[in-house]
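agent: user wants the full assembly modeled, not chains individually. Plan: 1) parse entity lines 2) check alphabet per entity 3) run joint structure prediction 4) return tokens. Steps 1-2 passed, two entities, 662 residues total. Proceeding.
--- entities ---
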Amino acid sequence: MAEMWINMGPQHPMTHGLWNLRVKVDGETIVDAEPEVGYLHRGIEKICEGLTYPQIIPITDRLCYGSSLTWSHLYCQSVEDLMGVEVPERAEYIRVMAIEMQRIASHLMWLAAYAGDLGMSVGFTYTMRDREVFVDLLQALTGSRLTYNYPRIGGVAHDLPPNFDRDSIRAVDYMEGRLKEYEDLFEGSKIFMMRNVGIGLLRKEDALNLGVTGPSLRASGVSYDLRKDMPYSVYPEMDFEVATLDDGDCYARYRVRMDEMWESCKIVRQALQKMPKGRWRMVSPRNAPAGTGLGRVEDPRGEAVMYVVGDGSDKPYRLKIRSPIFVTVSAAPKILVGYKLADVVAIMGGLDMCIGENDR
Amino acid sequence: MAERKLPKSTGIVLKPMKRTGKQLLRTLIFGKPNTVLYPEQKLDLPQIYRGKQVLDFKKCIGCGNCVTVCPNDCMWLEKVDDPELGKIERPGVDIGRCLFCGLCAEVCPTVALHMSTAYELANSERGKLRLSPMDIRDDAFGSTFVEERQKRMLPTLDLSKCTGCEKCAGECPEMCIAMMPVDRTDRNKPEINLAKCKSHAKCVAVCPEKALTMTEVYESYFEMPEPKLILDNCSGCGACARKCPSNAIYMLEMPGTEKTLKGGKKGKPKKRAVFVFEKCVGCGRCYQACKFDAIEIPGVEK
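--- prediction returned ---
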């Protein structure tokens, strides 16, 4: 049978954002695939060159709608590295707690989208409902629902609101109950398992060679998590495990994210317990010295890096953003080849695409 | 690869159905809906929610720090003729361009600008999204708002009253006031080290001319640039002092610079600008106002 190219996207229910996946099919089997990104390019790196250091924080929130807090934290971390600003310990604990809440919310949004992809409306509504708990908490903490603009150079914008500890512990308890429910709901469903187990195999060597990071890499059997391997902020104080599975299929990627949510619940509890009292923000300098600053964090989607070059003025000379998804999507040909066209939705959905940070 | 237990055929139906059935019962018995009927019911918003800006006209000094810090350039200073406050400058907001980051409220030195919880801001006309200072005015809002920034009572100096008697410097228990001579004028000016000040207010009590007063100052998390005078360029025109929103610039006479007029009379002496940094909010308007390049701010380009 003749081979042909099929465009899945830019407007396609599978894509979750504007990107195009071109697949070459032989009958129903995929022979080749080619991701095309860049439809959402806003030139954020260039915009940042014209803004002062505090003004960039709300812009970095717009990098990813799923986990904007991680990105503004990463930006602040790299600028603090450049300026040599000490962050108060309380601010570090608040940041870690907020980031882990954001990780849960982000993974829940992925799970909702994934359930929707696989035709499981119950999964979609349940997870979106429970994500709301964490979005509400973050709203009470930061003052906004999605674009938080919370971390600052030298601390965080606000202290914890009243009763926040109690509400967070309740939310985490609620979430742990719900996670058990999801496991029954998803893994108890034979259709979900049949569409996941053994589909979209990403070998360990391929994942390492392509530079895949995050849950997709950990699902391929590489225990690589920056929170453990290159600890930043107060992660060395936290007791948690890196979720790793050896299988490298869609089910493993799903499972790794579920385990990460369990670990995040643990970290939120510990951060609240160990949080010291004191200041949450220091005065940040206006001008950065000439030099470079680097920040690396474990985003919900993988390893995110920001590199800031200062030239002595109040604006950065250059801001480089390394997006984890931009690299992960390049593994599309390796994962897709050999599977059926109907599996594309499950395989690409399992990578957790976020186009905002990808195209920047 | 680890062995996986695929669910048996009963698992297709029973386990997920048990969970959804439980949820159905829970909803039927406790009956708490997950959504709200929007126009009738509204969600409780936290106090720090960032909605439409609200400006306290009386607290605002019109420094324009909010305009400078805005990442989207959606604010501007507008001249307002207020019956009570006279001719003043106050900021307006273009809600259509605002990204609700709240930096304007954070940078405000007098805590006059707040983000309110009003979020229903849509309008069918684009022009109505440009809110003038009068549209965002609400002088009573500040009293309902708990400000998180720490405030300190600090002495501020009115240099026009100060005689340079050095009594305040002698009284300060923290030794944070030093009398410094002002260049080319024959006067001394107390320099207050605000970092060391513990708000004892003894300098205020001892001042015979009542030149020092205690004022509330909110802690700023932004490092604000301080202007520097290049004395040789200063012509004494006083444009900077007129522009200064916090009256931190005083024009002092320099004796010995009088021009001899026709007929042997002496004219008025030249003046120079003197900064009182306790009052400076770092807006840089003096820097923009100076036509003779006599004021520079290190690290800032015009």
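agent: reporting back. The beta strands of chain A are 3-8, 20-26, 29-36, 151-152, 155-156, 291-299, 302-310, 316-322. The first strand of chain A starts at residue 3 and ends at 8.
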